[in-house]
């Protein structure tokens, strides 16, 4: 069974993340969407909220599981029997950080491969940070995030 992990802060999940998940699930038997419990920068949404929004969006995709992790990604990946780490690439500007992360993870666990999926060009400008900023300043984000996230942002 080929299992992959798609890690991130998902603070909150965007249509860009969902696009990557849809593409990736075609190549694996199971994809674990792994939400980091304590990201480096404080998260806007709680872990519970970030996970519940993902679960709501992915409820009709049987190959996808949503889980949380703390500590090193590669340790969690190993524990879950994962052979690949999935990351999305939006633009060239993502490359440097993603390259560093992939090489560092490979140094720690050489048998886990990082696989990149290019998001649809529609999402190449999209980030969770901009979504939060737009929502905070009263802008409309329904083009960028799924309905459950629009609702949660309004509640906040
Ligand atoms: O959505 P993000 O913020 O780009 O996700 C970054 C994430 C969570 C994948 C990354 O920060 C991570 O893997 N953190 C766990 C700690 C770790 O393993 N660090 C070494 C990576 S080189």
Write the layout of secondary structure elements.
Blueprint: E1 3-8, H1 15-24, E2 30-36, H2 47-57, E3 64-69, H3 73-79, E4 84-89, H4 92-108, E5 113-118, H5 128-136, H6 147-155
Parallel strand pairs: 1-2, 1-4, 2-3, 4-5
The chain binds 4'-phosphopantetheine.
4'-phosphopantetheine binds next to strand 1 and helix 4.
Description:
This protein is an alpha/beta fold. The protein has a single domain, classed as Rossmann fold. Helix content is 40%, strand content 20%. The chain contains 6 helices and 5 strands; from the N terminus they run E-H-E-H-E-H-E-H-E-H-H. Strands 3-2-1-4-5 form a 5-stranded parallel beta sheet, sandwiched between helices. The mean pLDDT is 96. Bound molecules: 4'-phosphopantetheine.
So, the CATH homologous superfamily?
HUPs
Distance between the termini: 40 Å
Tell me, what's the shape? globular
CATH topology (level 3) name: Rossmann fold
DSSP, total strands: 5
> What value does the Rg take, in angstroms?
15 Å
Beta content: 15-25%
- Work out the helicity level: 40-55%
* Ligand set: 4'-phosphopantetheine
Runs in which pLDDT lies below 50 for 5 or more consecutive residues are none
Structural class, please? alpha/beta
CATH class assignment = Alpha Beta
SSE order, one letter for each helix or strand: EHEHEHEHEHH
